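hi support,

uploading two proteins for the ticket. first:
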Amino acid sequence: MQELHQMLNRHRKYIFSLLALYCIGWGVTEYKTIFLGLILGTSISLLNHWLMIKRISRFGDAVVAGQRVRTLGTFSRMAWAVFAVIIALELPDHFHFISVILGLMTSYIVIMIDFIIQSLIKRKNGEER
């Protein structure tokens, strides 16, 4: 489980960096609705990623203890995504809909990029030994 939490910490750093860039973009450019949409979607994406890691951790603990395994909370994560979409649809003057959708996918993109980086690092360390 330690690796899982290390991975979450790396992903959180990447996503917070992206959120900082989005905030700068919101403040500096005239594309305020696009950056607000990215901020909203990415924030919900980070929340869903954190919820998933938390549930996976509990899931692993329950399996080790031989207890009944609870769900991974798919419904609650979908509800958060629907909540972000509803906000974007209700407030189109503030949030760009497509940007919210792209923001919701941010954690998955970060996971894939981090996987590639970690694979390259492991391959490089394996070749040096």
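and the second one:
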Amino acid sequence: MANVVVVGAQWGDEGKGKIVDWLSEKADVVVRFQGGHNAGHTLVIDGVTYKLSLLPSGVVRPGKLSIIGNGVVVDPHALADEIARLKEQGVELTPETLKVADNATLILSVHRELDALREGSTEGTRIGTTKRGIGPAYEDKVGRRAIRLRDLANLPTLGPKIDRMLSHHNALRRGFGLPELTHEAIYEELSSAAPKVLPYVEATWELLDERARAGDRILFEGAQGALLDVDHGTYPFVTSSNTTAGQAATGSGLGPRAIGYVLGIAKAYTTRVGEGPFPTELTDEIGRRLGERGHEFGTVTGRPRRCGWLDAVALRQTGRISGIDGIALTKLDVLDGLDEIKVCVAYELDGQTINRLPASQGAQSRIRPVYETIEGWKGATAGARSWADLPAQAVKYVRRVEELIDCPIALVSTSPERADTILVADPFED
């Protein structure tokens, strides 16, 4: 059986949480490999809603090992709060069922404050972040001044590391006209976090290697979407990590041979949160209808998502960049009742037709979608669990999407409920 990587194939919010939860029934280990607590997953199981932002979606299933990998940046207080919140809902998390990589980078209050300062400074510099410190934490990581989870086990030795970090951040704070942070304040913040998270800390790369060698099935869970990848997304309106499938290897500590099947998650339409280009965005009544029917509000922030038609050009491109083997098409039911549905099949840029999303920020802002119109359907797809339950025209829509993105549809999701899923090809068996 193949280990499976699940990645978002659009701008995030594609419904990865439900699909990961659905797949985790066959998995032994579920690994989150990048991002931070800016990315939210909503799971609806037997009518109960679970909102996750940092924990892997597999935590709601008993008997599974959940791992937060080294590619994730971890706010220790946010992690402790999320564990406590899930325990109140009856989800029991222990150091035996949840492991956090000892070499994962910490998010501290200085990162959150810097994130908010940048987003609130001037209109032209806003990226549309969640202001949770994810970007500044990744900056410290690549700048080699980060404090990592394992450091919390050796607090008395942290003096030089704190000073190195503050030499950078206090210079920035002076530029913003803010008072400098003291060594003592950072030390106290780290001291208060240590007992909350240290019981879960382990060399997870070693544990994953052992489980892989033992034949356990591993499910790798990404956050955000491929169009927010720091290299391949709509830069600079992207997240601060690699969100494509290749990061599953680096962000977990397992080599690329551990990756078997790559499952991309895409909505039957397109949404985006925050700033940046969105070629198929709809600001009319249909866009509002998609947002209302799809309950398009951010899991973490509650921000309304921008909505538009399916962008087959961008989806085909992310499929190739991530090496996607199959697509899980979600929220097909949101399109129920529309007389016609449009799909972007090309772009027009400066009078020329192109078939890829350009890398240039300027070009991305100038492209215009070229649409193909597809007949809608009057019947309901909501709750469908087999092809026979779908209106004929809905099946035609799914098949046409397959052709346009040059990638097979492996799953179709027709509601937030775990069981409302049509299985075409099992990623673990493929």
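thanks. also noticed: Residues 4-101+204-262 form a domain with the Adenylosuccinate Synthetase; Chain A, domain 1 fold (CATH 3.40.440.10).
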